[in-house]
Recover the amino acids of this structure.
């Protein structure tokens, strides 16, 4: 189902039968961005009798390999629409600012930004966490947890009819994940410095920023860099509400795509690639509006409009921070003794 690279062609719209509002919004933004954006179809998801949906990537900014880059991903779990919406809202913000904001143009001269706002359009149309084949895309990478994972939630190979299904053993990754890997490898890994953020919702009452590992408790090689990045953010946003932590502090899982890509980066380049996951704490929305509990969609998304607007506004700041941090990485990436200090502080804080 993976299509070849190519310019966005208008015919993908004609092939759709049931419309996906987030995809329509994304297509409008791409049109609005005009020649400032590069957009590609990196795959297609076909749902017989329902429609065909493109996997769209959008990129902007410097084409130089020396430029740092940030990747923004959303909609990996079809039920967590707010993740896609946050990424789309940020892309919209950038496209509108391109019309007047010289600081943004200056920044994009030395920075590349890449987006896949809707990784799992099939799951979004069907209202499922998994993709249309019943596979949980965050349990599907070829990587096994090294310590005990929670039953089912940590990933299972019993049945696609149960949640958290990893897919069949020794089969290629799902087309949606292949598309993400292709974009990450082409756009992010071959650089001196890159960041990514994958936007999810549904875990607990607090907003969390997770970094690898998810498959083991051991610290990553770039713990000092992650620690320095979190200090930058907390130091300059004193009223922030995020909990920064390795995912392994909450639970371990098989098949985590970002662990897989992080390890590929470590094996193949000398550059720094820090993949982050934004987990928006949607139980808070349920607490404020308990009726949401009775809607499956409502557990993962703020159903009241003013709350949704606030959620979108709030996280945009973090997404923009990542662009600034990547652009400015030479000013803050720790070296030598400073790096050792960050590493040991991080060990005390998280391990
Ligand atoms: Zn998720």
């Amino acid at each position: 189902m993976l299509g070849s690279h190519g310019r966005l062609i208008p015919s993908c719209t004609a092939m759709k039968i049931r419309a996906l509002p987030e995809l329509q919004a994304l297509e409008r933004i791409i049109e609005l961005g005009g020649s400032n954006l590069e957009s590609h179809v990196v795959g297609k998801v076909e749902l017989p009798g329902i429609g065909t949906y493109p996997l769209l990537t959008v990129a902007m900014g410097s084409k130089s390999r020396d430029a740092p880059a940030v990747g923004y991903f959303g909609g990996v779990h079809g039920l967590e629409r707010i993740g896609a919406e946050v990424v789309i809202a940020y892309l919209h913000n950038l496209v509108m600012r391109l019309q007047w904001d010289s600081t943004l143009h200056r920044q994009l001269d030395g920075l590349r930004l890449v987006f896949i706002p809707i990784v799992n359009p099939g799951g979004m149309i069907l209202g499922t966490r998994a993709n249309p084949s019943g596979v949980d895309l965050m349990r599907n990478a070829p990587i096994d947890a090294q310590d005990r994972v929670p039953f089912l939630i940590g990933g299972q190979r019993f049945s696609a009819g149960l949640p958290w299904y990893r897919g069949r053993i020794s089969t290629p990754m799902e087309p949606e994940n292949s598309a993400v890997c292709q974009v990450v490898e082409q756009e992010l890994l071959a650089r001196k410095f890159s960041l990514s953020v994958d936007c999810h919702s549904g875990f607990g009452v607090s907003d969390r920023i997770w970094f690898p590992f998810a498959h083991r408790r051991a610290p990553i090689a770039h713990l000092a860099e992650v620690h320095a990045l979190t200090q930058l953010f907390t130091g300059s946003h004193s009223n922030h509400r995020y909990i920064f932590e390795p995912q392994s502090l909450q639970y371990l899982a098989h098949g985590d795509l970002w662990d897989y890509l992080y390890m590929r980066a470590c094996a193949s380049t000398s550059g720094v690639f820090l993949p982050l996951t934004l987990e928006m704490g949607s139980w808070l929305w349920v607490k404020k509006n308990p009726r949401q509990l009775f809607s499956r969609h409502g557990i993962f998304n703020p159903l009241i409009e003013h709350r949704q607007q606030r959620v979108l506004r709030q996280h945009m700041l973090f997404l923009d921070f990542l662009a600034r941090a990547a652009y400015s990485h030479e000013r803050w990436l720790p070296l030598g003794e400073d790096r050792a200090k960050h590493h040991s502080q991080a060990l005390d804080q998280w391990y």
